[in-house]
Structures are given as C-alpha cells and as structure tokens.
Task: structure prediction
Amino acid sequence: YDKRHGVQGAFKAPPPPPTVDPKKKTPPPPRAPPKDAPFDGLPSFETHKVYIGVIDAANDEANTFDVRVGSVMGVVKLGDYERYNPAKLKASAFAPRGAKVRVSLLSPPAVSADPAKPAPRVPLRMESGPEGAFVAIDVKSRDVLALVGNYEAAAGGLDRATQSRRQPGSTFKPIVYSYAIHSRRFTPASLIDINPKAFGDYKPSNYEGWTAKDPLRLREVLANSVNVGAVRVLEDVGPQNVVDWASALGITTPMKPDLSLALGSYEVEPIELCAAYATFAAGGVYDAPRLIAKIVGPDGKELELKQRPPARRVLDEAEAYVITSMMTSVIDHGTGTRAKALNRPVAGKTGTSNGSKDTWFAGFSTDIAAVSWVGYDDGKLLGGAEAGGATALPAWVSFMKGAHDGKPVVDFTRPAGVVVVKIDSKTGKLPYPDDPDVIDEVFLEKTEPTDISEIPEPDAGAPTDAGTPTSFPDVYLPPLPDDRR
Result:
C-alpha cells in the first residue's frame, strides 16, 4: 500500500456467488464484502467524504484515470509530477488497472437527461497521503539544486520547502553539539550520562527506555540519537547560547531558550535547516541559499538582482570538521545506516518529532547538502513505524545517488587544528598498556585527553576456565535500523 500516493494494489478475485441448497427453501446469507470494498451507495455519495475507488482505465494523453466508485464512473486528473520525476509517471505507469485509490468528489454526480445515454463521468480528486518537502544546496556556490514542496507545481500553492515550519526533531541535535564543540566544553570523547533525569518539570525520555550503567561518549550519544544526553549537553552550554548559535547558522524561526530545544521542539523551515547543514559541509561558513541565478527581460537584457547578504564564518574549519566527523557515525553505525547505500563519505542526522508527526533526514557530502521531510500538513500522526531513517531517508538517498552519479568519491578533508588521538572507547581517556578497547578519535588541538585510563578491576562475572559468562552488557541500546527520535 503506497500511503504517499493513496494507491493500493488490485483487488483479489471476487468471492463466488452464493449457492442454493436444494434441501432448503432459502439460500444461505450473502457473503460479507471484503474490507475496503468500493462504495456502492449513491444516496450518500457526498463531496466531503473519501471513498475507495477502483481504476478502470488510464489515459496517458490526458494524464487521467477512469475510476469506478460503486456504480459511479469518475475521472481523476493527475497532478504535475514532472516537477520531481520527469517523464516517468504517466497515468498508465502510476498504478495498474484494478488498483484501489482513495478519492473524493469534486462535484455532485450528474444525471443524464436521456436514460439511454450514460451519465457523464464524475470529476474526482485523488486523496494523497503524507506531504513532503525536499531541498538540495550546492555546498560551494549555495545555489539551490532541487526544491520540492508540493505534489503539484501549480503557481500559488504552498511550498513546504520554503514556507512550511515543522519540528525538526533530532536533526536539530548537530546544532546543539556543534556549539558544544565550539565552546570547548565538550569533545567527541566526553562522557555523557544518558539515564533519565528530571530537569525541573521537564522529563525527557530515551527511545524504548534506553539506559546505561556507564556514560556514553558524545559521539555515540549523537549516533544513537539519545535524547537525555542531548538535554544534558544543552543544559551545560546554555539554551540561550544555542538559540543565538542557530540564528548564526541561518535559522530565523522563533525559538525559546528552554531545554526542549535539544530535541527539536521549535519549528524550522526545511530550506533553512539545509542551509545550516551546508555550513558544516563548507567548513563553517554560512551563505544564504540562492534560488535565482539570473533574470533576463523580454529585451534579452539581464536584470539586476537583489544583492545577497555577505557570507559569514560561524565555525572555524576545525570545529566544522569535528562535528562532521561525529555525524558520519550516524551513517556508519547509528540511526542513518541506510545512507551507506551511497558508497561515498556522507554525514547526516535522522529526525522524528513526537508521535511521528514529522520525519526528517538532513545530511551532506563534500559537494551537496540536502534535507528530506515527510509529514501531514495538519499534524496527523504518520504511525509508530514511521521515522526519519525509514520514511524521509529513502528520498534523500535516491536524490543523492543521482546527483553524484559519475562524480569522484571525495572524503572530508581534515584541516589544521584537528588531531587524531588513540583513546579508550569506554572511558574517553588515553589507553593503558595493552588496552583492548583502543579507538581513534578526533579532537580540536589542545582539547585532547591527557589522563590515562585506569586498568579495570577483573569483572566478577567474567568468564573463567571453569565457567561461562554471567555478566550482561553495561549499555542497553536496542539495535535500530532507523531513527525513532
């Protein structure tokens, strides 16, 4: 069932007609109609209701469907899909004959004056599923490469990519963490307590009650989208500082300096979120997106455009590299692993608002930053199974594959001011001799650890020659293919 286009597959074969038992005087009761059967009651066929219809025929030239709703034959005019899928969604390719579609009536059914002639087809509108928005920006020029904000490209319609404001959920966390790195109060190896805590009246929770005996490194808190960790970091660095930081990154929507900010509670526009991520990709320089490259008048002369505001540096290159490195872990082993299908270095973050009202994926390569959003205009829930990594990320991957086709694979370049240091993955400190948990981590110069990890005491539940392991993992992080926050 394609909820995004309101289309479902063809009906199964109808049940056989009831048979009459010759030993009985009355036939058995008729079979109940299948679930979601087409409506077959004209007296209540109303313009404000949604009905299940069946596609009877497709007209590619007119880009229409003939749809039967009960005993009524209607016609559906498809929207302008050229905007996001050129030459691929003709009516006959959109859905097969016999497929079910959700439709509503545009005007009451007409009655033919001549009983011998069929009534004219009823104009129907196909009810779409969730709406979506997509923005892609060239990292170097800041030209907008792609912009989709509606099912149709009709002038005057709502462009959700530039006009709609939605809660970004966890896609806002890199903005919080980038300020934390900038402040020098945190590094990717900083240990964060992720266990639930009440911050006054505010009681954030982790997905599925994630808990940990020991703190997690900040990199893993981001990769696994741990909510309580984000709130603890925001509390430490100060909410007002992050509000100002978001503004410097191009977020113009109003935000209050409270702790819910860490979880993306305040709305943003997709194009502004994309511009903020493009700032990370560009080494810390913010430049406003450019929607119009030039305007040529009827006389062939190029008209003068409004001057763009000057670019500004928000982070230095080293800070931008560190947050980018942290965001690559989201793709490598966190909530955005589906993006590994690109087979090239990318960084990003999944996002899902409370109740799955909004699902996001925001990310970038060295060349392109892009943001994908899926949700309903009225804030209706998408459903518990819908999340940024499952719902918004596939469109992002599809676009980025095409946009990078034929381009060389380029990794993010480590600039001056960043050092790579071996640390103990559990403590975030320098490893002790023969430490089995050594990993490489990036740090801003002069923020790398100097303390050496202590050799841990033998675990009483560790395996011995005479027994089997009895200990359990210190960290409970259920394996998730997709983001749920």
Remarks:
- Confidence is low (pLDDT under 50) at residues 1-18, 27-43, 81-86, 463-485.
- The radius of gyration is 28 Å.
